[in-house]
Specification:
Layout lengths: L5 E11 L5 E11 L3 E5 L6 H9 L6 E6 L2 E2 L10 E4 L11 H11 L4 H14 L15 H13 L5 E5 L7 H18 L2 E6 L2 H7 L2 E6 L2 E6 L1 H6 L4 H6 L4 E9 L2 E4 L2 E4 L9 E7 L4 E5 L6 H4 L16 E11 L4 E7 L4 E6 L8 E6 L5 E4 L5 E9 L3 E4 L2 E4 L13 E7 L3 E4 L7 E10 L4 E7 L4 E6 L8 E6 L5 E4 L2
Parallel strand pairs: 3-8, 3-9, 6-7, 7-8
Antiparallel strand pairs: 1-2, 1-4, 4-5, 9-10, 11-12, 11-14, 12-13, 14-20, 15-19, 16-17, 16-19, 17-18, 21-22, 21-24, 22-23, 24-30, 25-29, 26-27, 26-29, 27-28
Helix pairs in contact: 2-3, 2-4, 3-4
Length: 486
């Protein structure tokens, strides 16, 4: 039965290009009438492809797209009641402002009086009433953007699609236009679907945010939900600043990380379950630890812990390594006594070398299910010469792992994240690939390395790598564990 409150429904849509790669992988999304929905993600995540499929500029390989319950998957763009505002505006340089805005109305062969009224109303909405007869090339970037929006809304579309429309503007103008877009949305009452890679922009503008990565939707929620309750490490890392750590859920409302136990508010993760822990930098309370400073400091009149919440909180201690003023707050990197690193944001300045105490309230500790535990899992097969084939390569394994196995047996291959060696020179490895994703987890890096054959493997390392670095991949025979597949 049709859900009448949904104006756009994207159902199991995939888009595969000629090279075999999927820009969209089984994406589903429903947008309510009058909503401001932002599709957010890094470059190449599929967000613009999704917008272009809704607009009709690209056709989905599979799945369907409905507008008010009607299938428009194969409908050409000009027959869809949607309009698109592009990043590069796409204004006609040979037409003035009025004629640019009126272009679509003239194609519909409306009478001159109607066109005049509609164009003036659209220009008034975007704050460009006195610019009707200006040459578009004489306008600033922000003014051209307003004209592009006026041209889109003058046709009174049911859905307005905006593809990174503010990306070409400078920071101040972009922030001004964000506020204006929000006001326009309230005035017009039409549905906005907005694409951006700017997290702050998405959180500022949206009723709901759709976070995408590698052609898949990672999370859909309000800006508050996305920021405070990320569902996985990618979302937590991509949206704002985060401290992400490996932990163990001891029981309901009790978690262990950084070699200490903390109270939290999460339940339902089981007992002694590996989890990931997220703490936002602004949620860490920090104070100078006078117990570890000079006698002169200890004799000061004020109590450095007087602004710390009272109660039974787990405290931990460390030393400030760096302090940068960010305009509104100070951003500090603090190394704990047991070697973990935290980012802390506070209105007070703590200089490098200062010994500090820290705590976090239970409700500010966010627990997430671990997407990947400590082993990579691959499909493999026993081959000749005491080797196992997986990841399109033959690997030497410890002979004990081959006991009870014969050539041709199918096996599950387990390789611990910590036991994959990355080489600076790609020809030094059995395989080669590149660093695809980096996540710092307090005292080590969690890397996703994509092999040249297209496989992903996860690596824990203390070495510093950059996204895009080419690497060789080595695995010691003793690090490869085998399980026979019956």
């Amino acid at each position: 039965m049709q859900k009448t409150n949904y104006i756009i429904e994207v159902n199991n849509v995939s888009k595969q290009f000629e090279d075999g790669k999927f820009a969209l992988d089984n994406v589903s999304l429903s947008v309510e009438k009058g909503e401001f929905v932002t599709i957010l993600g890094p470059s190449g995540c599929g967000k613009t492809t999704l917008l272009r499929c809704i607009a009709g500029f690209q056709v989905a390989t599979s799945g369907d797209i409905l507008l008010k319950g009607k299938d428009i998957t194969q409908t050409p763009p000009h027959k869809r009641p949607v309009n698109t505002v592009f990043q590069k505006y796409a204004l006609f340089p040979h037409l003035n402002v009025f004629d640019n805005v009126a272009f679509g109305l003239k194609l519909k062969k409306l009478d001159k009086d109607t066109i005049l009224k509609k164009v003036k109303r659209a220009l008034k909405t975007v704050g460009m009433s006195d610019y009707e007869y200006r040459d578009v090339d004489s306008l600033s970037g922000g003014q051209q953007q307003r004209v592009a929006i006026a041209r889109a809304i003058v046709n009174q579309p049911e859905v307005l699609l905006l593809d990174e429309p503010l990306a070409a503007l400078d920071l101040k103008m972009r922030k001004d236009m964000q506020l204006e877009l929000k006001e326009m949305h309230k005035k017009l009452g039409i549905t906005f679907i907005y694409v951006t890679h700017d997290q702050e922009e998405a959180l500022t503008l949206s009723d709901r945010v759709v976070v995408m990565n590698e052609g898949k939707i990672q999370q859909i929620g309000t800006p508050t939900d996305i920021y405070n309750e990320p569902v996985n490490c990618f979302v937590a890392d991509f949206i704002g600043e985060s401290n992400i750590l490996s932990g163990t859920m001891i029981r309901d409302k009790r978690v262990r990380f950084c070699e200490q136990e903390f109270d939290c508010v999460d339940t339902g993760f089981g007992e002694n379950t590996p989890v990931d822990v997220v703490i936002r930098p602004e949620d860490i309370y920090i104070w100078e630890n006078t117990k570890r400073t000079s006698i002169a400091k200890q004799q000061e009149d004020y109590d450095p812990e007087d602004r710390v919440p009272k109660g039974r909180f787990t405290k931990w201690y460390g030393t400030v390594q760096s302090c940068i003023f960010k305009g509104v707050h100070y951003e500090m990197m603090v190394t704990t006594d047991n070697g973990y690193e935290f980012m802390v944001q506070d209105y007070h300045e703590f200089l490098p070398g200062t010994e500090v105490g820290m705590l976090v309230k239970p409700e500010d500790i966010q627990i997430m299910h671990k997407e990947h535990h400590i082993y990579n899992h691959f499909d493999g097969e026993v081959v000749k010469n005491g080797k196992v084939s997986f990841l399109d390569a033959d690997w030497e394994v410890d002979e004990k792992q081959l006991e009870g196995l014969s050539v041709g047996d199918k096996v599950e291959v387990l390789v611990p994240f910590r036991e994959i060696d990355l080489q600076d020179h790609e020809d030094e490895g059995v395989l080669s690939g590149e660093v695809h994703f980096i996540l710092y987890k307090g005292n080590h890096y969690h890397l996703t390395v994509r092999t040249d054959e297209g496989y992903d493997m996860f690596v824990y390392t203390n070495d510093v790598w950059d996204n895009g670095d080419r690497v060789g991949i080595q695995i010691a025979p003793k690090s490869i564990k085998l399980k026979k597949v019956e």
